[in-house]
Amino acid sequence: MNNLWDFELHDRKTHVCQLKKSLYGLKQAPFAWYARVDSYLKKVGFTRSSVYPNLYFKTIQGMPLILVLYVDDIILIGADPLILECKRELASEFEMKDLGLMHYFLGL
Predict the structure, then answer these.
(1) What one-character-per-residue DSSP string does 2-67 give?
(2) For 9-31, what is each residue's pLDDT tens digit?
């Protein structure tokens, strides 16, 4: 096995299938999702908070951009141009739906 997303078919020892994405319901799904997002965010220049591991930040031209992961949702905080560019980058890597401005967040 090369990584988390590869598995071998028992009746075809020479064939390998690669899953396009993790499946909900599997014990490993949250770990696989978080590992994939964490790796990508670090690659594009975000720094993970040492206090809150689901909080990422980066500074672009002196302006902060904050990203918070909440289960499989992403909350972006920053200047509009930075948010728009970040959403474009994320959409090129992940299947996403933009829910617009956040009006209510459970627990806040």
Answers:
(1) -STTEEEETTEEEEEEE-SSPPTTSTTHHHHHHHHHHHHHHHTT-EE-SSSTTEEEEEETTEEEEE
(2) 567 666 656 666 555 556 666 77
Q: Which two tokens stand for residue 92?
A: 């090129």
> How far, CA to CA in Å, does 31 sit from each of 26, 77, 79?
10, 24, 30
| Closest by CA position to 5, among listed 98, 13, 21 | 21
**CB-based contact 57:64 (threshold 8 Å):** yes
Under 8 Å CB-to-CB from 45, ≥6 apart: which residues? 58
* pTM listed for this prediction: 0.69
Tell me if 16 sits within 8 A of 7, measured CB to CB. yes
Tokens of 73: 């949702």
Helix, strand, or coil here: 80?
helix
